[in-house]
Design a protein that fits this description.
alpha+beta, nine-stranded mixed β-sheet, 9 strands
């Protein structure tokens, strides 16, 4: 059974629980020929203004940068052996290196493991918000699906038309 909603509050508890439990997500991008590429990463999520917003601290690799330049659509998939899963489809945008307020905000979200429970100390990989190797992607979801493994109940949040 699948239900669809435009209120993220309807799926937030399961989203936070599953993302916090699973932590690692498979990120999918596509190249200029439409071929997918996956990588395992840890995005963090928050819910400002009652809509989900994701952030990804990452290295700006040539492949990832080229894929997102050609097509900013991406998908994140979380899965656990209990068959609980989350699928988040989003538009990814690079945050400017000189946007120190956003970089600090994201650094802090990772430090406190974000509202959804995912995250890690970014200092394990970067020297701080001024580190030029630290790049941040803003993830604006337009669709998020949570699936409960016990009975495969599926709930889908879709952004309001003016958001997605």
């Amino acid at each position: 059974m699948t239900t669809t909603t435009t209120s993220f509050d309807d799926i937030r508890r399961e989203f936070d629980t599953y993302v916090g439990d699973i932590n690692y997500a498979t990120m999918v991008t596509v190249d200029a020929k439409g071929r997918p590429r996956t990588r395992i990463l840890i995005p963090v999520w928050e819910v400002p203004d009652r809509n989900p917003l994701g952030w990804l601290a990452t290295y700006r690799t040539p492949v990832k940068a080229a894929h997102l330049a050609a097509n900013p659509n991406t998908s994140f998939s979380y899965w656990t052996q209990r068959q609980n899963s989350v699928h988040a489809d989003a538009i990814a945008q690079w945050v400017a290196l000189d946007d120190l307020a956003t970089r600090q905000h994201v650094w802090d979200l990772y430090q406190r493991t974000s509202p959804a429970g995912a995250g890690y100390p970014l200092g394990q990989f970067w020297q701080g918000i001024h580190d030029p190797k630290l790049h941040i992607l803003r993830l604006t979801p337009w669709r998020i699906q949570v699936i409960r493994g016990g009975d495969l109940r599926s709930r889908i949040w879709k952004a309001a038309p003016d958001l997605g």
